[in-house]
Design brief:
Length: 141
């Protein structure tokens, strides 16, 4: 049913990400799916902002985050996983990853968002991805 699964992860939310990966692994095993694990790191946006960081800081960040992504895949997946690191605004980068990979399913982790007046089920990124993905989207809590 799902031959390709895209799993965008936020490496700063350990519990949510671990649960998401285990669920993705279970589905991938069941359907024999190809899995791509993606994380998004922010870019500097403007050259002026970049000038405030030491030389090589961006490359060091990319290297460290890529290794964390590989470690996450090795820890939580028993199936083969392709790890990708992208840069930019989270929702834009995930939509680009969807366009490039053409998955049958996008699996995203989500923490309940709380506000004074209501409890939203999804944050802005989850809402945009579920609206624009063009494939099934599973939100794992």
């Amino acid at each position: 049913m799902f031959s390709k699964i895209l799993v965008p992860v936020d490496l700063s939310t350990e519990n949510t990400t671990e649960k998401l990966c285990k669920t993705a692994n279970d589905l991938a095993q069941k359907y024999g799916s190809e899995v791509r694990l993606v994380t998004v790191i922010p870019d500097y946006g403007m050259p002026m902002v970049a000038s405030y960081f030491p030389e090589g800081a961006q490359e060091k960040l990319k290297s460290e985050m890529k290794q964390k992504l590989i470690d996450l895949a090795e820890k939580n997946f028993s199936v083969s996983v392709e790890c990708k690191l992208t840069q930019g605004k989270r929702r834009t980068a995930i939509l680009k990853a969807i366009e490039d990979f053409s998955p049958d399913l996008v699996m995203m982790g989500c923490r309940r968002k709380k506000s004074r007046r209501s409890q939203r089920l999804l944050g802005a990124t989850g809402t945009v991805i579920s609206d624009r993905a063009g494939c099934s989207v599973m939100i794992v809590r």
